Amino acid sequence: MASRSIIPLRAVEGEQTVRVVAPESGAPHAETAMSAVHGPAPLPANGKQFHIWTIGCQMNEADSAKVASLLQEVGYRQTASEDDADIVVLNSCVVRQSAEDKVAGKLGSLARLKRTRPETRIVLTGCMVTNQQEQLRKRFPHVDLFFDPSDFDRLGLVVPELARLEDDLAALPHYYAPAADGLEPAEGYRKGVTAYVPIIYGCNFLCSYCIVPYRRGRETSRPLAAIVREVERLVADGVREVTLLGQTVNAWGHDFAAKQELVTLLRAVDAIPGLDRLRYLTSHPMYMTDELFDVMADLPTLCEHLNLPVQAGDDTVLHRMRRRYTRDHWLERLQYARSRMPDLTVATDIIVGFPGETEEQFLQTYAMLDQARCEKVHLAMYSPRPGTLSARWEDDIPHAEKHRRHQVLEKLQERIGTEINERRLGSVTEVLVEGKNKGRWSGRSRGNTLVHVDVREDTDLLGKLVDVRITSATPWFLIGEAAGAPR
Ligand code: SAH
Ligand code: SF4
């Protein structure tokens, strides 16, 4: 399964190769759960291979899983190496310069591959792809196809098998039936025991530093029925935990003619039989209503974990970031949430070195984080993104100073993480096991803490819920031993 960390919709510096738990090429596809339950069998293996390289947020991961699924369904097999792939798909991120640099580096190395194996098809998707593809084409002439993540049908231009399938739309309602909103992703992609399900695309906030709205467009929610159908299918395929995704996930339904609220969707998904855990990310503090926290506290599958980016702890900086809330609002929302869910864990995002951020303003962020005691903080050094409002302002905090502020907050969070996790020693927490890591089983608690599980004998815990007694703690993860029968 893919190695990943569950984090808010944000750029991650690491790259990953998405692996999808799906029928092996050549396996008896017609007997897979998905085919049996949901539609026509995938095409037989065609001897071709694909490789996917992904960087960025969970939305990219979800998109990559969808591409992988499409290719597997038409007979391609996934390979971990680009060197023996017939198609290499790069799913890009430009939210920070460092991510964009990594994509450019990867594209550079693929130019060499293309010279030695010109028949390899190279495809670029993700946020680097804009409407103006002329420039990209000039810069990366070895790329065969650029496609916008909302336009998966274009993959057919380099995957003849997909194009052929498209000719026969009627025969393939399973993959290509257009949803009412034209956005329903290909069905049947699976990731093992956990899965991401995008529920809203784009973003209507225009935070002054952020490129996302320019690349992903306005908020567009998927219909409730389509989401419920997809989760039902995932559950039928063995998924036990689903994370609903959106850049502003709690704006779900606001764009419908008859406005809806996320709580309605959460209730509907929670009611799906067989689903054990439900999460959603990333929330905007403006839309965190009392009702949303009340529903979170009440619905059994909904995990006690909240992704609530704050970005800064100083009101002047927040105002210049165009975040549309104050530090007190964010803190008050946490306070209410914790009054309803005492076990709630919170993750947040912070940008240090925003243009004009004074030492005093930075110390406000420090004090706020010290007070908030989040379980996890995703720290980023400000990086100007062309086209955004703040890119017009002087990037006046030197890199070394951004780095220092980053380190100061990292150290603070290390202390807080240690204190939080050490208090868990001896307690029992439920873990959904997602894989094996250096001889130990690993998974996440409902609060989204990474937990490694020691088992005496070689028991297969993959995909199981296990109660774990915590025996050891670090600032970043816990270690424990099974304290009951897996289920
Ligand atoms: N929708 C989410 C986050 C989207 S972008 C939210 O509202 O917070 C993911 C993360 O990348 C952000 O939380 C922010 O911390 C970081 N980020 C975005 N633009 C950035 C920039 N120009 N420089 C540095 N970090 C940035
Ligand atoms: Fe970017 Fe702000 Fe939208 Fe988050 S809410 S995606 S930070 S513009």
Automatic annotation (TrEMBL):
Where can this protein be found?
Cytoplasm
Q: Which residues form the Radical SAM core domain?
A: 189-419
Offer one Pfam family short name for this entry: Radical_SAM
Q: Which residues bind [4Fe-4S] cluster 2?
A: 203, 207, 210
Q: Which GO terms describe its cellular component?
A: cytosol
Assembly mode: Monomer.
User: What family does the Swiss-Prot or TrEMBL record give for this protein?
Assistant: Belongs to the methylthiotransferase family. MiaB subfamily.
Q: Which HAMAP family match?
A: tRNA_metthiotr_MiaB
Q: What is this protein called?
A: tRNA-2-methylthio-N(6)-dimethylallyladenosine synthase
